[in-house]
């Protein structure tokens, strides 16, 4: 059996998604549910789900992706599928980096949700066609200068000053884990793989000055 955990702020949504999983597949079983990612982080190790079905309606802050990445790296590896209301409101690249392997709009049918959960359990990536189209459009129009956030530019500037992760975390009053999250995002957006390359590209694009 494929073990599924449902996460949604609304108890009605949690019950609905749990029923979808339970009533529409003989290979899926719901092992637990949670009202938010903090509860998920506390219980995921004990429940050990194969897939987390996460409803993100009205909850798309960047902290969501940071928390998911933390759970993936520090606690328990997951196959995560998210359900969102508005395509334009989600940072697809950041979602994928945080471990999300499936994205569906909230209008998805029961059969689409079940099929996506089963596919992710077997290691596949499931993106609704509308998400793929949006991702393609963004790749064509977004430049590195546009896509780096102000905080990422701050981190990049501190890299240019030769600071390590611990010093950056102290200077910005954030955790070293969050620094690593920002570095991963910077590397991906600038198309680089090392700190030196990131600084060099940042200087060339006028993002930072040495």
How is the main sheet built?
6 strands, parallel
Order of helices and strands: EHEHEHEHEHEHHHHHH
Radius of gyration: 19 Å
Shape: elongated
CATH top level assignment of the largest domain = Alpha Beta
How many separate structural domains?
Answer: 2
Please supply descriptive tags for the structure shown above.
single chain, 210 residues, alpha/beta, Rossmann fold, Arc Repressor Mutant, subunit A, 2 domains, 6-stranded parallel beta sheet, 11 helices, 56% helix, elongated
Please characterize this protein's 3D structure.
There is one protein chain. With 210 residues, the chain is α/β, with parallel strands linked by helices. It has two domains: 2-140, Response regulator (Rossmann fold, 3-Layer(aba) Sandwich), CATH 3.40.50; 144-204, Orthogonal Bundle (Arc Repressor Mutant, subunit A), CATH 1.10.10.10. Helix content is 56%, strand content 15%. It contains eleven helices and six strands. It has helices at residues 11-23, 37-47, 62-75, 92-97, 110-121, 129-141, 144-147, 150-160, 165-172, 176-190, 195-204, and strands at 2-7, 28-34, 51-55, 79-84, 100-105, 126-127. The chain has a six-stranded parallel beta sheet with strand order 2-1-3-4-5-6, with helices on both faces. The longest helix is centred in the last third of the chain and has 15 residues, at 176-190. The model has no long low-confidence stretch (mean pLDDT 84).
């Amino acid at each position: 059996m494929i073990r599924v955990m449902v996460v949604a702020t609304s108890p009605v949504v949690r019950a609905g998604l749990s029923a979808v999983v339970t009533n529409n597949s003989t290979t899926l079983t719901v092992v637990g549910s949670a009202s938010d990612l903090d509860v998920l982080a506390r219980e995921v190790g004990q429940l050990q789900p194969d897939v987390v079905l996460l409803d993100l309606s009205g909850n798309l802050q960047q902290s969501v992706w940071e928390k998911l990445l933390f759970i993936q790296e520090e606690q328990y590896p997951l196959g995560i599928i998210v359900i969102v209301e508005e395509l334009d409101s989600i940072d697809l690249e950041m979602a994928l980096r945080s471990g999300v392997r499936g994205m569906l709009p909230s209008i998805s049918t029961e059969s689409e949700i079940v099929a996506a959960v089963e596919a992710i359990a077997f290691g596949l990536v499931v993106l609704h066609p509308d998400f793929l189209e949006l991702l393609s459009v963004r790749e064509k129009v977004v430049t590195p200068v546009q896509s780096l956030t102000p905080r990422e530019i701050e981190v990049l500037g501190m890299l240019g000053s030769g600071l390590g992760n611990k010093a950056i975390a102290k200077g910005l009053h954030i955790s070293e884990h969050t620094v690593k999250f920002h570095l991963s995002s910077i590397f991906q957006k600038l198309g680089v793989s090392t700190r030196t390359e990131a600084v060099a590209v940042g200087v060339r694009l006028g993002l930072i000055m040495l």
